[in-house]
């Protein structure tokens, strides 16, 4: 009996020693696994950061006014009633280029026709999307609203001089989705002079502005 009890105690001692030997191995494995997981996470974060700052960095859409053409101009003056009739329509072709590797989505906007700072015509620009590294042509037709321009005291002197100063303006706002949404706003404005006698645009100067 004593021999058997001694053997049992020896077996228990050996099992405890074996378990003690295995525990450090388990701890080592866990540490190694944790280090590998952390290293992978840090590597992926570094890769995404580099891509975000280089390949997938958000770029500003480029707006270019290709042309502004006077499609209609009609002017008459009623001497008896001292009334002016003036109809001006400007067709503007605008190119919007998306240099990003992902699509650019823009919301509803409005193109404006201005006369000496006053809005005298407007037309909606519907929302849309421009594909990655693609361009889109927007044809905008702006017509002067006579009732809005008659109240301006400079109208008669401009008509007498034979030149009507106008300005076209539009703001296009949208977003580029990289790792997250990046909002972009682009503007363009064109100063133009309309010759009443020759019925054409004699001067066109455009300005562009974009911000992230």
TrEMBL record:
Regions that span the bilayer: 32-56
InterPro entries recorded: Lea14-like_2, LEA_2
Q: Which domain of life is it from?
A: Eukaryota
Tell me, what's a Pfam family for it? LEA_2
Name the keywords, alphabetized.
Answer: Membrane, Transmembrane, Transmembrane helix
Q: Where is the Late embryogenesis abundant protein LEA-2 subgroup domain?
A: 94-179
Q: Which SUPFAM superfamilies has this protein been placed in?
A: LEA14-like (SSF117070)
Cited PANTHER family? LATE EMBRYOGENESIS ABUNDANT (LEA) HYDROXYPROLINE-RICH GLYCOPROTEIN FAMILY
What is this protein's record name?
A: Late embryogenesis abundant protein LEA-2 subgroup domain-containing protein
State the species of origin: Fraxinus pennsylvanica
Ranked from the top, the taxonomy reads:
Eukaryota, Viridiplantae, Streptophyta, Embryophyta, Tracheophyta
